[in-house]
Every structure is written in C-alpha cells, then in structure tokens.
Amino acid sequence: MATLIPPPSKKQKREAQKPREVNLIPDDLPNVLIKFQASDTGDSVGGGIRVPGNISEQQLEQLLNQLLGEQDDPIPYSFSLLNDSKKGDLIDIKDNLYTSVLKPELKTTEDVLTLVYTPRAIFKVKAVTRPSASIAGHGSTILCTQFAPHTSSKMVTGAGDSTARIWDCNTQTPLHVLKGHTNWVLCVSWCPNGEVIATGSMDNTIRLWDENGKSLGDPLRGHTKWITSLAWEPIHLVKPGDSPRLVSASKDGSIKVWDTARRVPLMTFNGHSSSVSCVKWSGQGVIYSASHDKTIRVWDAKNGKLINVLKSHAHWVNHLSLSTDYALRMGAFDHTGIKPSSPEEAQKKALQNYDKVAKINGVTEERIVTASDDFTMYLWEPLKSTKPVCRMTGHQKLVNHVQFSPDGRNLVSASFDNSIKLWDGRTGKFISTFRGHVAAVYQTAWSSDCRLLVSCSKDTTLKVWDIKTKKLSVDLPGHQDEVYSVDWSVDGKRVASGGKDKHVRLWTH
Amino acid sequence: MKPLQPQNEYIEQHIKQHGRRLDHEERKRKRIAREGHKIAKDAQTLKGWRGKQFAQKRYKEKVAMKKKIKAHQESKVKGPTEPLENNDEALPTYLLDRQQTNTAKAISSSIKQKRLEKADKFSVPLPKVRGISEEEMFKVIKTGSKKSKAWKRMITKHTFVGEGFTRRPVKMERIIRPTALRQKKANVTHPELGVTVFLPILSVKKNPQSPMYTQMGVLTKGTIIEVNVSELGMVTAGGKVVWGKYAQITNEPDRDGCVNAVLLV
Questions:
Q1: CA atoms in the 13 A half-sphere facing the CB of A320
Q2: For tag attachment on chain B, is the N or C end more exposed, with fewer CB atoms within 10 Å?
Q3: Kind and range of the H or E run holding A10
Q4: Cβ within 8 Å, pair B89-A141
Q5: Chain A contact for B91, CB < 8 A?
Q6: Cα A343 vs. chain centroid, distance in angstroms?
Q7: Phi, then psi, of A430 in degrees rounded to 5
Q8: At CA A65, angle to CA A63 and CA A71, rounded to 5?
Q9: SS3 call for A401
Q10: Distance CA B106, CA B95 (A)
Q11: Exposed (0-12), middle (13-18) or buried (19+): which is B119, by Cβ within 10 Å?
C-alpha cells in the first residue's frame, strides 16, 4: 500500500546506530563582542556590547528592545550574523549564538560579531483547525480564490460556470455574483488598494469589477487566447491619484499592460514564443514573465523594453514568485486592515511595507524563484545578473507552485510528486521536505507571520504545516474532490479553498 | 441487405490503371439527381422488415439534417452569446495544457452527484442472472471401492480460494474446488474512465445464485467480488488511499477462462 512506510534502509540503520552528538551548550564560554545593525536601514545600534557566548535568541531580543527603548511593548526580532560585509552574506541565528555561529566555527569568540536584526510579525497566526463553512453557489469547478488585501471578511472566487463570486466570510454567505464572462474564469486578482477586482477568463477577456460587485464597463479585449495570469502595479509605484495599472499574460504568448481608468492597453510585450504561464509586477518597476518557451523575461514597465532574458530551465516554466510578493499584494494595508486616509499616505505606507521585506542592509534586493517542468527551481537576482544564484533540485516530478514566505526568508515548492519542500529564501539551500499528501500538491499559501503554511492537493485534503518543527500541524479533510486553489487571509484568521466539488470552504481556528 | 464487399483493392487498382468510363461523371450526376425520386419510391413501396429498416434510417438522417440546419442558423445570429455549455470539467490554468492521466482519477464529481441521489445506490450493472442448477454446478464424484458412494461433489465453475486455505483430508472433503479452476486476479474495467486493469481479487462478496456459493467463492456471471484497487490511486474524502472496492463479474469465467469485471462506483 502507498501509505505504508518502507522499512529503514541499511544506511539509515547504520546512521541510527552511530553515537549521536549531544547539543550541549558549554557554560564556560568567554564573552563576545557584538554589534546590532538594522536590516532595512543599515543603522547600527548601541556600539559594541559584550555578551556571553551562549546568549539565546530571546535574550538578544530583550537586549535589543532595551537598547531601542521599547521595553514597554517589545517587538520580536530575528537575528542573523553578517558574515562578510562586502558580499552581504547573512547567516540566520537559530536558538542561540553558540550553536549557530561559534560551534560551526564561522567566527571565533575573538571577533566582533555584527548581528543584523529584522522585526518579526508582532501577531501570531493560529493554525486553522476546523471547517467553519462549506458554501454552495458555484455551478462548476472553482478555479481560483483570493482574499481581499485589507480584510479577511471578503473573498473572491472564480469558477468554471463563467462567474466570479464575492463572499462575505463573516456571515459565510454569498455577497455578489460577478456575471459577464462567457467562459471559465481562470484567474482573479484583487488590487492592492482593495477597491478593484480583475478577472481573467477562458473567453480571452479581462473584466474589472469594483468591491461591491459592480462591473466597471466593458471587458478588456486584446488577447487572442485565454488569460493565464494577472498582476497589479504595486501601490508604491503608482502616482497618488492615478489608478494602478494591470498586467495580463495569455496563452497566446503576449503580455499586455492595461490602463485601468481609461480601459485601454498601454503596451504589449511580444517576446515569448509560447504560452506565458505567470506574470509578476515587481516593486522595482519591472515585470517578470515566465513562459512555456523555457525562458523568463524581465521587462521595463516604464517603456516596455526587454531588460533580460533568463535561460536555464530545460522545460516549461510553471510559476514564478518574488521575495516581496506578499508585501506587494498587501499594498498599504497591514494585518489590522486600516485604510490609509489619502493616496499619498497609502503610497508612503506601501513603500514602508515593501522596504521592510526588500531591504537588506539598506540595499533593496529582490529575488525571484521559478519552478519548472524539468523538476528543478532556480533562484535569481535578475537585476544583478542573468546567472541564477542557485539551482534547486530534489523534486521527482514537475514543480507546480513556488512561493516566498512573507518575510522572504524561506520559500516553498509544491510538486506533483506529492511532496512540499522548504528552501532557504536567500541562498536556495534545501531545508526540509513535508510529506503527507497522497496525490499531487497543487498550491500553497503562507500565513502572514511566516510560521505556518497550508497546502491543497489532488487528494482532496488541505494540510497545515509548521515551519518551526517542520512537521504536519493539522490535516484538514472535508472536500469531496480535488482542491484547486487555496488562500490564507492577510490577518491570518481564515483559510479559503475551492475545487472540483463546487463548494467554497472556509477554515478557521 | 448489404451487397458483398469487394475483396482486396482490385477496383481502385483498375481505376488507377485504366481510368473511369467516359460518361462516369454524367452518370453520377444523374444518379444523384434521381436519388430523391428513388427514396420517395422506396418510402412508398418497401414493405415489412425492409420498410422498417428504411424508415429508421430515414428518420435518423432527417434528425441529423435538422440539427445541422439549426446550428447553421444559430451561427448567423448576432448579439450576446450564451455562456458556453462545457461538458468537460473546468480546469485551473496550471492544468490546462497538461494531459490528464486517467488511471489516477477515479471518483469524479458526477459519480458523487449520483451517489447523493441515493436512488440507484443498490443498482448494479447486471441486475439479472441466469439461474444455474445444482447439476450444472456440481459433478458427482463416486467413491468407494465399488464406486457405490456418491456424496462427493466437484465444482465445475471457476472459484476464488483465499490465501490461507488448506484442503481438508481427502476422506472428509465433500466439495472439491479444482486447483485448475482457481482464479486470483480479475480484469477490472473502470466504467467512467474506460480503462481496464488486472487487479487481485480480495474476496467474493455475493454470488446471486445462492449464499452457499458465496461461501465457496464460486465465480459466475453477476457475482460481486472485492478487488484490490490500491494501484489506481483512488482517494477518499478524508484523503486516505482506497484499498478494496467492489466489482461485478460480467462474463462467464468458465467459458472464457478469465474473470472480467466492472467496478462499482
């Protein structure tokens, strides 16, 4: 049977018999000199401080909060060691200073250690454990799901019955039906300002809707085949007062940038020779597109010039993720969902949110990861070089979905070989494999505090994984058939999923 | 009646070598022109079985023609079109260009829908079976030195015998299940997917002839067996792999020497 665990191999048995190293922290460590440095601005705090060599992460956190004068309501931080200041090589500190720095002999106790600190999410998302509702309404397979960027009470789904629907998640009832498309609604995208929804369909058109389900005029026509992916312009790049632009990718190999106010195409990028599978608008004013012609292209969003062509993959590129995806999706909102009072403020706030993730040592750095049918993934820094940072191998079947964690430190990949793999988001190093699904894994979604992950699969279940323990946290059966799409709300309260059984399911703690 | 089909390609070959007769085109045109008259005559004069056959054929042709005309007329109408009625399931973008592996996908939502209706919960593909008499099922084996005793029976049909079965001592054994007629695997067809897989039999669940035959594991047409479907990769709503599933035997194994069955979903 497929679920039976095979007996351990000879190698595993031998490994198990070896004397294991005990993780003891010696008490008699000398003091070390450390220096704190903010990760986004690069400012250092407090100069050199002498601390015991076995200082734990919590103690470092306390110390830093005291130095910053925030004892009253302390902010959790994560720390990493700046190993090489020229290269900007960072090593994360897990648990304590000794086990992550001194024991692997990265630095000695004689050196001055520069610790880079990043604020973690103040709130904690609880793992979803139960289905709170199963709402019927759609007449066919649900193909895509997305929560609003500002609230967890609104969610939009697109389905095979050629409608998209907005749901009220507080009362768990249907709110609006977005009728207009004449074929399957393949992708939905909620604008990061929370006011507009774009839907792309099999009938080659894109439609725009406002938050209350009213259609904003005629469909956007131009593509000759169905729409595969949609992305909005990041809020911090939009001039206050303007409406954000939209980029759409299609099966016909073209990418179009649309002016959503005047409803006209501004630019068309024809470069890909095959279907474009994914498109993303980066926070640095470039557009990334991944295609079935094995290339990833980088376009300038201002004038439409092709900046780079990234070739390394040997087969279709299926998906693409930015390290700042989550920040861009949230725009000017945070987990509290407070609306900024003016467009100027929104822009400022969005830039702040973006910088929190994108800036490392005061330098904006955006990485992308691409997943492909050749079973591998590549990590790139496309604005620095056309050579990949890392090639990530390990999956045994095609990789369907990759996603950076909201803080950009980790990334996960979902593959058709039934496994999910966790990788380091900076170096691309392999961290762990999550096994448990008994069929292909289709999509994943991060919780906004980066501690949890939910995945949906062909085997009709959702599974919640804990990043810290690297284990299955909760198994969520309930769907009657394949689950095609899953999303975790920005405030972490709810998970929504939809699939072949035509029911939208909401999951809560 | 169909005329005899030409054997081999000699007509085509002749046409290639010598061409058609000179008035071929004209004859053809005339034949087509006369066709309406011929059909009208046939419709009036054909009697009996041939008349029925003709009427049936004509009816089908007319239905097809009407459908075609309607489709043509609809294509000319301008204005907002109705949403497409897709018979096949909608797929997300990441599955659109992929070929579906049909072995793995088993429980489609349409079947689920059917199950919800509950009405045909107990219906099976073969609702009725031919009765089998004891004489046909059993062969009497005479024992004793004078062959005067006749209490032993041998089953003449194929049987399924479980893994750990040991025969009783010959002296006591009343019913013999011949080893040559034992079956371990069955060709199981998935009705929705149309795939046939050779799967191990787990047990005989019900033989419609008699509960005794069920106990003895006799495989006749219409028998419900349990098969091991772990290869198919079916999954329950709870995300567990389905192991055993019921199937009904569709052939008479003693005639074919194999067991063919259809999966009950």
A1: 33
A2: N
A3: helix A10-17
A4: yes
A5: yes
A6: 25
A7: -70, 135
A8: 115
A9: strand
A10: 17
A11: exposed
Q: Looking at the partner chain, which of A203, A480, A485 has a beta carbon nearest the beta carbon of B92?
A: A485
From chain A, pick out residues whose CB is under 8 angstroms from the CB of B85: none
Q: Phi and psi at residue A59, in whole multiples of 5°?
A: -65, -40
pLDDT above 70 as % of chain B? 84
How many angstroms away from the CA of B79 is the closest CA of chain A? 13
pLDDT tens for A181-190 read: 998 999 999 9
- The 3-state DSSP class for residue B215 equals helix
State the Cα–Cα distance between residues A102 and A79, nearest whole angstrom: 15
State the greatest distance between any 2 C-alpha atoms of chain A, in Å, as a whole number: 73
Taking 50 as the threshold, does the pLDDT of residue B104 lie above it? no
By C-alpha distance, the chain A residue nearest B107 is A481
Q: Does the beta-carbon distance from A461 to B109 stay under 8 Å?
A: no
Contacts of B86 in chain A (CB under 8 A): 140, 160, 183-184
By the CB < 8 Å criterion, does B90 face chain A? yes
Q: Is B79 on the interface with A (CB under 8 A)?
A: no
B94: which chain A residues are within 8 Å (Cβ-Cβ)? 277, 318-319, 400-401, 442
Considering only CB atoms, A477 lies closest to which of B86, B108, B237, namely: B237
Give the length of chain A.
509
CB-CB neighbours of A170 under 10 Å: 12
pTM reported for the whole predicted model: 0.67
B221–chain A nearest CA distance, Å = 29
Q: What percent of chain B is helix, strand and coil (3-state, nearest 5)?
A: 35, 20, 45
Q: Among candidates A163, A186, A244, A178, which has minimal Cα distance to A210? A: A178
* Residue in A143, A477, A502 nearest the CB of B239: A477
CA atoms lying within 13 Å on the CB side of residue A426: 14
B93 with A277: Cβ contact below 8 A = yes
CB contact under 8 A, A161 and B236: no
Q: How do residues A397-433 score in pLDDT, each as one tens digit?
A: 899 999 999 888 889 999 999 999 999 888 888 989 9
The pLDDT value recorded for residue A290 is 93
For the stretch A257-299, pLDDT in tens is 999 888 899 999 998 999 999 999 998 889 999 999 999 999 9
DSSP letter string, A288-346:
EEEETTSEEEEEETTT--EEEEEE--SS-EEEEEETTHHHHHHTT--TT-PPPSSHHHH
Q: How far apart are CA A307 and CA B160, in angstroms?
A: 69
Helical pair B24-45 and B48-76, crossing angle rounded to 10 deg: 110
Which amino acid is located at B211 in the chain? P
Name the pLDDT band for B102 (thresholds 50, 70, 90): very low
In this structure, which amino acid lies at residue B46?
Answer: L
Q: Give the Cβ contact number of residue A162 at 10 Å.
A: 24
Could you give phi then psi for residue B181, rounded to 5 degrees?
Answer: -105, 20
Strands (E), A405-459: 410-415, 419-424, 430-435, 441-446, 452-457
Lowest mean pLDDT among A190-199, A279-288, A332-341: A332-341
Residue with tokens 């295609």: A291
Is B233 in Cβ contact with A439 (below 8 Å)? yes
